Structures are given as structure tokens and as C-alpha cells.
Amino acid sequence: MSFFLLCFLSSFSALVRFTYGANSGCGGVINLRTSSVNQGTTMRSLDADSDGHYEPNLNCQWLVAGRQGKNVRLRFTEFDVESAQNETGVFCWDYIEVRDGDGPYSPLIGRYCGNGSPPTVDTTRNFMWIKFFSDSTDNRVGFTASVSNVEPVCGSHEVINVSSTVPQTLVSPNFPRNYPPNVRCQWVLTAADRYQKIHVRFVDLSMEDSPRCGNDFIRLEDEDNRLPVSHGGENGSLVVSTTSSYTFRYRWRRVSMNMSFD
Ligand SMILES: [Ca+2]
Ligand SMILES: [Ca+2]
Which of 86, 114, 149, 232 is 20 to 30 A from residue 31's alpha carbon, by CA? Predict the structure, then answer.
């Protein structure tokens, strides 16, 4: 038996509303562990009353679990989600949120609304977390999308041990040619012990410049996220050291990059 006990209250007020859950097609786990590469599974926004529009007050959350060693790809085939344009830009009254990982605090890939189809996106690992939110009014057609396993084009699913003094080199996909659009990569580096420094030298770095590196960027994070270093839009080299493990996250759209870890 389980119960909640509320005491020491002389009165209370609470806001209660009906919403949908995984049993209704609103969220849940999408298991791609036994799916072959590029074999898509369809997912869509919930239209419970079949009027052609998604329902109001949705907060649907999906965890897409892909095959070990693969990345998860999300590709939209239909997209119309309520938005509003004002002088400062587009505001998403309703939205779909996509994250690179297995939970609501994983790195954000994007939050999308409007009627232009978002780009196809891949995760850097075999998990993707997706949320669809709608407010109480103005429901649109919604989205239909396919999720599938894809072969990683970059990054590493294995932790790279860089304890050796022999330099190891990482390169962006297609190097020395331009890297492809909408690619996300992640490498995790570790040393033999946490007092050993990891030394990173960028041998060739050329990336798109954009305000606050909003388009293309490299993010270096240490083990505890205490010393995040962001870098993008510069030419030349950069040397960074830390006393603990590094996580590298890259998002890139064009030009070329070659990184040497020594
Ligand atoms: Ca509906
Ligand atoms: Ca709405």
C-alpha cells in the first residue's frame, strides 16, 4: 500500500488537469535495440479525437533507445506546430524538444515549432530524448517523424585512453574537405589517473563564425563540468589542459577541422 499524507494544513488549493500518457501514444520508450540500421520507426504527435490536430495540454516524453554502437536519427516527414512571430523572433507556443541523450537534462539539440520542417538530426550516442509540449489553445496538424539507428560518422563510442605520450589525432568527418551539415560528434577522453593532465592542441581549426557560436561549436567539458571551455569560429591553434577527463562535443556544418591530442 502507498499513500500520500498531507497534514498541518487548514486548507489547500490545487490545479488538476487531465493529460495523456504513454498508453495513449503520448510518450514512452521507443526500442530500436533490435532494429537494423536505417529501419525507421514512425512517431507522431497525439491526435486522440482524430480531428486532424494534436491535443491541447500535452507533455509527451519519449526515450528512443538505439542499438549499442549506433547513433539515433530523427527525421521529420510532416511538421506544423503552433508558433508566433514578433519583433524579437519566433516564439514557440507549442514545441518539440530534442536532446542528445537519455533524459530531460541531456544536451539540447533543438527546440522546434512553426511549419517549416526541422533538419534531420543525429545523436552522438544511442539514446535520444524527445518532448512534445502543447499549450491550452490553438492546436495544429503536428508532426510525423521517423527514428532509426544510423552508423556514426564521427566521434567514438569507446572512451579513448590518452595516457600514452604518443599523440593521437582526431579529425572531423570528410577532413580535409568540409564537414557535412548537422553532424554531431562526441569523444570522451580519459587519462590513467585523475592527476595526469590531458593536453589538447588544435592543429587545424576552421569553423563557421556565428553569434555566441550558435551554429557551429566545439565544447570541451571536464569530468565534473567545472571547467567548460567553448571554442568556435577561430582559425589557428588552441592548447588546453585539465586534470580530469574531458568530454568533447562538436556540432558543425561546414569547413574543416583537424584536432591533435598530444
Ligand atoms: Ca485532435
Ligand atoms: Ca497550442
Answer: 114
